[in-house]
Design goal:
The complex is a heterodimer of chains A (298) and B (387). Chain A has 298 residues and is of the alpha+beta class. Chain A contains eight helices and 15 strands. Helices cover 32% and strands 28% of the residues of chain A. The chains are: A alpha+beta (298), B mainly beta (387).
């Protein structure tokens, strides 16, 4: 069995499929996966005005009946909102629009305050499958959409009979199965200050891994780094971890916990420890924390 | 890195919300016909051990040698049908036990048929299966011919799964109609022609216990009727009906730490001729490499004798009687090894088996061991090609 690699750009990330199998079969499977991802992206794109998500957001103020997939995504976001004490919020997208990371300037406080007033999952009426967003509010599946897509694609590959492979969408990874000889995949965790360089390698034979970092989109103002992950309660980015990596059974959960871990700042350690999942936090001074930390770097 | 998930409230809540998403849990596919066409070939050499000289009263001690060529084709016909064609060609030579007589030490000795025979057997089986979302139904038709034997068989079965595919139930029936026309030889008073029929019904249940374990259990009931004796034996008078039950249970478990699969099988068989047999099978399928698998196996078999089995033939005895070693009490051990090497569309199989039957291997004590208990070696070489 030989390993085949497929690459495409979607969901704002380089998407890669590494699949073992017969060339023609894995090629057509990879094509089908890419089509699924593109359709998923079209459905939930904030930037495309005729996407389902844009239509749903345009209907804010009225009741919207969600289809099964959208309802399940919202239900997941609702659960994560509760479990994160409100740090993950599906309506936090309005805050992101106040931040222009290319400008090198902090957002205007009045504008940020106005955006904050529009956010807040507690203001949304969610009686699945009926959703009523407050007027002016908007949903955004950032933080869970791509992660879910990784899991869904990995499962499509398993269903098509691929037993050995890996799905990697911009560092959010689900293992389909180990290499055919049973060897785990070697996964490099990005160095937060040199993202092309791995800071350490982890072995993963099953499950999923996701990393949330302050290096994806950021700016520095007066020597302080402001990244794209925003705390819906303050409207500002957290400033404690440079990156957070979590290993879980699914990429969706790994990614959710990594993002909430970033937002929980100093409280992330005990909260993640309680889940029992392996995690790695890299502080802004590059020291490592958590069960996966390289012992020598503490 | 193992993913050890705790009973954390957060994790449980997120997990249950996550699995509600479409495509988050791998959904088993609908029952479907084979997606590729596979051509398989097996060549087997079956060699029975010679009768020990001390146990041979008359004739030659060389027993059967059989060379078997098997061809198999499996393919899908459209999206809903699957076809399997099996063809087997056997060439057999050697002699078989004609009967037993009392030796000077009082123990039975084997009388072998005088000359070595040469025989051909051809066997063709065609199976057609229709696949539905949660079930499949198959029919099969078979024809087998030897110089002195013709058999037709017909089978049908239906398998269906629950929606979660954790449970599969199956029902099957098969019938066969065999005609015997023994080769005549002067001095032997053989029947000219006779026939026998069989009807078998099977129910089976498979349960997926976890992602790495499953168990299957099956119960079968067979009725054989007609001429069930061996026309080539000196004295062989058997009832013209045989009702047999068999209960089979198979357990399969994949062991992740070893990258190996354990197969444990048990079979209990009983019939109204008085035979009860137990079979225990153990096999260990070890993945050595991405394309190499080695499977050692061990089988233990033990059976009690038929009610009308007699170690020594007696032409003056009345009623049902047979000195066939297959109806005698014995135990047997089979050791085997199987090596499978596969690439993307090729598979090569090499397997070897050694079988030894012995009175001492039986679960109960065997007073008089049959002198013609079998020992054989079986070597199989094979290749599958998929396209």
């Amino acid at each position: 069995m030989t390993l085949h690699h497929f690459r495409f750009q979607a969901l704002g990330s380089p998407c890669q499929l590494h699949l073992y199998g017969e060339p023609a079969r894995v090629r057509s499977l990879a094509d089908a996966c890419e089509r699924w991802v593109r359709a998923f992206e079209r459905t939930y794109s904030r930037f495309c005005s005729d996407s389902l998500l844009s239509q749903l957001n345009a209907a804010a103020g009225t009741d919207w009946l969600c289809d099964a997939q959208t309802a399940a995504l919202i239900h997941y976001g609702d659960t994560l909102w509760h479990q994160s004490d409100g740090l993950f919020d599906l309506t936090a997208g309005a805050l992101a629009r106040c931040w222009d990371f290319r400008s090198g300037r902090l957002p205007d406080p009045d504008r940020l305050a106005a955006a904050k007033a529009l956010c807040g999952w507690e203001k949304v009426r969610w009686e699945s499958p009926a959703l009523r967003l407050p007027e002016g509010a908007a949903l955004d599946f950032g933080g869970i959409g791509k992660e879910y897509a990784v899991d869904a694609v990995a499962n499509q590959c398993r269903e098509a009979g691929v037993m050995h492979g890996l799905v990697d969408f911009g560092g959010d990874i689900a293992v389909i199965g180990p290499h055919p000889n049973g060897a785990p995949w070697k996964i490099g965790i990005r160095h937060p200050r040199a993202p092309q360089k791995p800071i350490l390698h982890l072995s993963l034979g099953e499950g999923a891994i996701a990393t949330s970092g302050d290096y994806e989109r950021f700016m520095e103002v007066d020597g302080r780094r402001y990244c794209h992950i925003l705390n819906p309660k303050t409207g500002y980015p957290p400033n404690y971890w440079a990156s957070m990596t979590v290993i879980a059974g699914s990429c969706l959960i790994a990614g959710s916990l990594a993002t909430v871990g970033m937002l929980r700042e100093a409280g992330a350690g005990p909260w993640l420890d309680e889940t029992g999942l392996p995690w790695l936090g890299i502080r802004t001074d590059l020291s490592q924390r958590g069960p996966l930390a390289d012992q020598s770097s503490r | 890195m193992a993913v050890t998930e705790s009973g954390s409230k957060t994790l449980l809540a997120l997990t249950s919300a996550a699995v509600a998403l479409p495509g988050m849990a791998p959904v088993a596919r609908a029952d479907s016909p084979p997606e590729v066409t596979t051509l398989g070939y097996r060549y087997s050499l079956y060699r029975e051990d010679d009768i020990e000289p001390g146990k041979l009263a008359a004739g030659v001690g060389e027993r059967y040698e059989i060379d078997v060529h098997q061809l198999r084709l499996t393919t899908g016909l459209g999206d809903t049908w699957g076809l399997t064609v099996d063809y087997q060609h056997e060439s057999l030579s050697g002699a078989s036990p004609f009967g037993t007589s009392r030796g000077v030490d009082g123990n039975p000795q084997v009388v072998m048929t005088g000359a070595s025979i040469e025989e051909l057997r051809r066997d063709l089986n065609i199976g057609l299966r229709r696949y539905y979302d949660y079930s499949n139904a198959g029919i099969s038709l078979g024809y087998s011919a030897e110089d002195d034997y013709t058999a037709y068989n017909l089978g049908a079965d239906y398998q269906f799964s629950t929606e979660d595919r954790l449970n599969t139930f199956g029902l099957g029936v098969s019938i066969s109609d065999d005609t015997l026309e023994p080769t005549q030889q002067s001095g032997f008073n053989r029947i000219k022609k006779d026939d026998k029929q069989s009807l078998t019904a099977v129910v089976n249940y498979t349960r997926v216990l976890s992602t790495v374990a499953q168990v299957q259990t099956a119960l079968s009931l067979s009725r054989h009727s007609g001429f069930l004796s061996d026309p080539y034996k000196a004295v062989d008078v058997r009832p013209d009906e045989r009702i047999a039950w068999a209960w089979t249970t198979q357990y399969r478990r994949y062991l992740k730490d070893w990258d190996a699969a354990l197969h444990v099988d048990y079979r209990l068989y009983t019939d109204d001729w008085g035979i009860v047999s137990n079979t225990f099978d153990l096999a260990w399928y070890q993945n050595v490499d991405a394309g190499l698998r080695v499977a050692p196996s061990l089988r233990y078999y033990t059976q009690s004798q038929a009610d009308f089995y007699f170690p020594t033939d007696n032409t003056t005895r009345q009623g049902y009687q047979s000195s066939d070693h297959r109806l005698s009490p014995f135990g047997a051990l089979t050791t085997g090894i199987r090596v499978e090497a596969h690439a993307v569309n090729w598979k090569v199989v090499i397997a070897a088996e050694r079988y030894i039957a012995d009175g001492d291997l039986a679960l109960g004590s065997v007073e008089v061991e049959h002198p013609a208990l079998l020992g054989f070696s079986l070597v199989t070489l094979g290749m599958d090609y998929s396209f």
